[in-house]
Amino acid sequence: MKTTGIHHVAIICSDYKRSKKFYVEVLGFSIIQETFRVERNSYKLDLRVGENNQIELFSFPNPPQRVGNPEACGLRHLAFEVRDIEQTVSDLNFQGVETENIRIDEITGKKFTFFKDPDNLPLEIYES
């Protein structure tokens, strides 16, 4: 298999309006397309992340809860690259998003930290 990149990351949320506001207004991702799928009673929101990446935000009636431990098998977290981590943390905190302390990656020497989305999905910001 030869790939050219990651096309999108799909996220299922428990409260569509709350998550849409978080990803669009707090994180600043732009809306590509919003679709309500009547047969599934479900929204699908395509979001632009950076220049070439997308998140598909889904709502479903009564989705099962996420496993609480980030060290469980499966997707561990989603990381976003930023140019200025201190400014990004300040912006997130100003909007009421709690972040962990900024740490240094012992392998790359780059700064990073974590925060959570409205459904406690662990998200990372990593300085380029």
UniProtKB/TrEMBL annotation:
Keywords: Metal-binding. It comes from the Bacteria. Pfam families: Glyoxalase. Residues 5-128 form the VOC domain. One of its GO terms (molecular function) is metal ion binding. PROSITE patterns: VOC. This is VOC domain-containing protein. It comes from Nostoc minutum NIES-26. The lineage of its organism: Bacteria, Bacillati, Cyanobacteriota, Cyanophyceae, Nostocales.
